[in-house]
Specification:
This protein has 295 residues and is α/β, with parallel strands linked by helices. The protein is built from 11 helices and 13 strands. Bound molecules: 1-O-phosphono-alpha-D-glucopyranose. 1-O-phosphono-alpha-D-glucopyranose (G1P) binds next to strand 11 and helix 9.
Length: 295
């Protein structure tokens, strides 16, 4: 079984739900506590043993590439001022040279198309895919747990969670079959089905381990839900040839694609930080008593 060494991060989205902020800041660079959203997702990939990070970007996303580069002036200045703790944070997060790649999705044709844009950089090996809208909180990362399922069963592994059965039309939904390890066999997939057509309420929550055969399928996949080239449609075709397992993630997931999910993520990650937790709790309690809804 081939090892999963590379991860793809589709970061080309326009982030319209975060306007006006995303007029000049990519949504992946919005800050949860003190680091950008994309850092959490890259950290999860690193923890799972990923060695090479592939970003599928778009116009006006250059700042993501800059973020993962060394800021020599900043590092020198911190060293001169003796701010070694700040410098250590930067050094610990710095990807080694040659372990990041960037390519552009030239038109917003959907997630399936974004993944296909990474085909040359991934090559003929299995890869992880992490959707940066979703950030996850757990002692052991979601992708690291999925890797264990992959190592014992091979094939393709998708993270899943349960959603409100009335909200299946927001997500890719999978059918649930017999248990495999601490997951289950997937019996089919459909993108954004109406509740009456959904095979279950298990939705695709944004982490995937995929075999490279998906690329040739995506090349031929037509437009689906939302008139976009859907990854779920491509996976449903691959499903006819290969096994798919679902891994139900047992931690907390935050959909940072929406302001409410983003705020929830900020609170949850602040509460995780022993150095600021008590102050944050005090502030929330006081604000709840004194701030009234406006207008
Ligand atoms: C995408 C995927 C969908 C998945 C979702 C998770 O949808 O197409 O299958 O459930 O991400 O956030 P999007 O949110 O881009 O509409």
């Amino acid at each position: 079984m081939k090892r999963v060494r590379k991860a793809v991060f589709p970061v080309a989205g326009l982030g319209t739900r975060f306007l006006p902020a995303t007029k000049s800041i990519p949504k992946e660079m919005l800050t949860v506590v003190d680091r950008p959203i994309i850092q959490y997702v890259v950290d999860e990939a690193r923890e799972a043993g990923i060695e090479h990070m592939i970003f599928v970007t778009g116009r006006s996303k250059e700042v993501i590439e800059d973020y993962f580069d060394i800021q020599m002036e900043l590092s020198t200045s911190l060293a001169e001022k003796g701010k070694t703790d700040r410098l250590k944070i930067l050094n610990d997060l710095q990807p080694p040279p040659g372990t990041t790649s960037f390519t552009r999705q030239q038109a917003p044709l959907g997630l399936g198309h974004a993944v296909w844009c990474a085909r040359e950089l991934v090559g003929n090996e299995p890869f992880a895919l992490l959707l940066p809208d979703m950030i996850m909180q757990a002692e052991k990362g979601c992708l690291a747990s999925m890797m264990e399922l992959y190592q014992s069963n091979g094939g393709n592994v998708l993270s899943v969670e349960e959603c409100d059965p009335n909200e299946t039309d927001k997500y890719g939904i999978v059918g649930k079959g017999e248990p495999i390890g601490d997951g289950f066999r997937i019996t089919g997939m459909v993108e954004k089905p109406a509740p009456k057509d959904a095979p279950s309420n298990f939705y695709l929550s944004g982490r995937y381990i995929l075999q490279p055969e998906i690329f040739e399928i995506l090349e031929k996949t037509g437009r689906g839900a939302g008139d976009e080239i859907q990854l779920t449609d491509g996976m449903q075709t691959l499903f006819k040839q290969q096994q798919f397992a679902g891994y139900p993630f047992r931690g907390r997931t935050f959909d940072c694609g929406s302001p409410e999910g983003f705020i929830e993520a900020n609170i949850a990650f602040a509460l995780w930080r022993a150095d600021i937790r008590d102050k944050v709790i005090d502030d929330i309690e006081r604000l709840m008593e004194t701030v009234e809804p406006r207008g």
